[in-house]
Structures
1.
Amino acid sequence: MRPAGQGDRGRGSEATSSAEGVAPSSEGDVSAPLLSVRGLSVVLGGRVVLEEVTFQLRAGDLMGVVGPNGAGKTTLLQALLGLLDTGVEGDVRFGGQPFSVARRRVAFVPQRSAVDWDFPVTVRDVVLQGRVVHRPWWRSASREDGAVVDQALADVGMSSLASRMISDLSGGQQQRVFLARALAQRPEIFVLDEPMTGVDAATEGLVWQILEAHRAAGGASLVVHHGVEAVRRHASRVLLLNRRVRGLGAPRPTLTLEALAETYGVDWRDHAAGTP
Amino acid sequence: MSAWAGAGAFLGVGWGVFRDYPFTLWSSLTAVLVGVLCAYLGVYLVLRRWSLLGDVLGHAALPGIAALWWGAGALAWWWYLPAAWVSALAAVVVLAWMSRRAKDRADASMAIVLAGSFGLGAVLWSRGQRAGHGPSAVQDMLFGNAAAVTEAQAWGTLGMVMVCIAAVALCHRPLALALFDPSYARVIGLPVQRLEGLLLLVVALAVVVSLPMVGVVLVAAMLVLPAQAALLLRWRWRATLVASVALGALAALAGAWASIRWAGVATGPAMVIAASVLFAGLWWWTGRTSRGGSSPVPVQGQEPSHVG
């Protein structure tokens, strides 16, 4: 067993350089990545949570972010989406622009537990929130907004529950509502934080299906997910994270036992039952 | 049947109050306004899980009122409003500063600020009494006194209530989103902190406006009770607001009439008892019709979730 953070640093940076070495150096390139993160470090309460994280998300990427608890996965998303006020260093560009300019093109799906599901709102009310970013705050939803919302509800199979109160929903249905809200935003990039936690198999399948369709249509997604096997199966690229980037690239060559052992600080070769 | 009898008795008391004390029209109007305002803002406050904050604001208004009384002697009621507002907001600033260091124990910080400011207010109060200032509108601000409300006060209250409700209603859409899902709201660029700050300022103003009627000790109950009762109904936001406002107005009117009709009944406590009775009634009724039970709705071709 090797403690996390003391493995050979070579592999992480090697994978980084081999996968990202062809990155265009000039901003505003025609093939500019949808998301470019360079040297992102985050310090929270005096603790280094992320260190020199560098990766890119291109059109057609479905990237899974994998790592143990406390690896900084959620912090990474918070830093990318401007949710951290202090302690963030490095360069984050969405299509060459800072997030404050690009936020319309990025749809965030928070953890389900982040909100109070007893709020007195309906399923449709929540999905309509996805359109707020596209209009001035004092303007009410247009007919076009309504049509987009109806489509999003249909895409996640929730049309029949549109007028239900959200407090009536199961975990999987709640996740579908969040996904529909993100869909209603019509984004380039989906950013999802643990979308499979506490949801049924059908919903999990639906989430992957929608993200794969988005990728096929030229969009990109960044998914924090704890299930290594599902990421191996569905993601087109993987970011192995534990404070630093421990691996980056296509799932199969990246999610090796050695890399996982280094990332999680556990050597699975010693535990046959725990083989991922 | 019993509901009709209750409504009849209620209107009977009201009729008696108006017949015997015609001047109480203004205090009744003010009571309804205060009840409406508190109940309206209460829905936002309860959903933000800031129920205790109303209590802090109410108690923290006392030092401002008492200090002004001690320093300047008895003044007209409206002199005390800015003093109470500044004093309440000062407590919020202290609270914000404290919560930066003790993030996970916000309730402890609230308890400390509430008790501390009330203690300070009580000391200033007794200094004022010692200084020989006679009885004034200030004393009514401890538990409220509907009978002391004047016509000017009723109109002043109406203006403030309209300002407060308009401010929140105008910002309802972004505010509701910021309360429901703050991280999503921030990601799409809503000024979440400023919206919460606005809610706080308006609630502080509402507390101050309500003080002559409800009193510093119990004003929080008028913020929380009607809202929490209305939320039991599990209606949509707008319907919840209407229900809360109706309950708040009813409780305020009942309390005001009771305090005018029967000597020795303070207005604030009477209002809170009326609101509590309404809350208890709704609690029983929603439990009986099992509207409170939340069973996941099945969708065709979908298994129930493993968790939650």
2.
Amino acid sequence: MAKLDANAIVTFIVRLIVSFGFIILMLVLFFSFRVGLVNDDMQRFDMEMANTLASSQLTSHRNIFSAEKLFAASQLPSVCEYEYSMSIESLGARKVCNQNSDCIDFCKEVLSTQDPEYDCNFELFGQDFCECKGSDGWQDGYQWKFGKAQGKLYNYKEEKFPTAIETKTGAVLPATITITSYDSFLSRISCIAQKAYDTKSKNAAAAE
Amino acid sequence: MEPMQWLLVTLAITLIFVVFAINPMQAATDEAVSQNAYLQVRRIASVINLVASAPDGTTYSIDMPMQKCRLLITKNFVKLDVKGFKETSETYGLISPTGIQDNFEYDCNGRSIKVIKDNGVRFEG
């Protein structure tokens, strides 16, 4: 009868445990694999809306917004899924001034009003510049804001894009357009209602 | 067995498992994504939104999923009914005004539709 070698048995068992441990570890790693899908819906919506606005009725050329049309803007593109707000601000349109009266014409043009509130802002270092009081406070250039979030907000996303503004005098200034999309209770409810209405209208038309 | 032989056997088993399991898993993931009505409808809406603001003559071809589905595009939204393991329906709004002239209904089955900007947006199946 062959003798059992205790050392060989122990070595065999240790190797067996190590091997199975390794296989189990690999199995755990493999099955813990998860696919994460990030759609970035709101970010995409901001880009699509910026692209739509860039060729909308508010522009004089593609991606060049007309100041005249922006002052007269009544209807903006809309979408069912999200509410959104849009702001356009000119960059580097500051007017240097020495006294308040230097700012009258600048503020008339920037605010598109005949009776603007204006001020020559004192700068300790650098040159003084004109500021005009618009509906959202003091501004030193062109600025428009449309839309705002309403009701309970679940999420929002803000994106900035480069653009340009054509002033009434024909000058083209660099600007930034900021699109902020909001996912809110109100937008969800109104969107459900609109989809239900559109689907019903479509079915009714097909039945006739 | 020598330690190196143990290691080789273990690695071989693991490799066989990975090689044979990764393909079905990848296929299952692709299938899940293509059957996800929400992703598809969002993709189609995105293309229409972009083409609607593009210059006349812009054309984009959208590949539709392989499984049975029905697509409806109206002036305000895109609706996709997917008949897969379970039936799902998703609707997504379009940025208005879209310039879409007429409603468009389409039975997909892996075919593609063309979105054409031509004085408004129109579709060809």
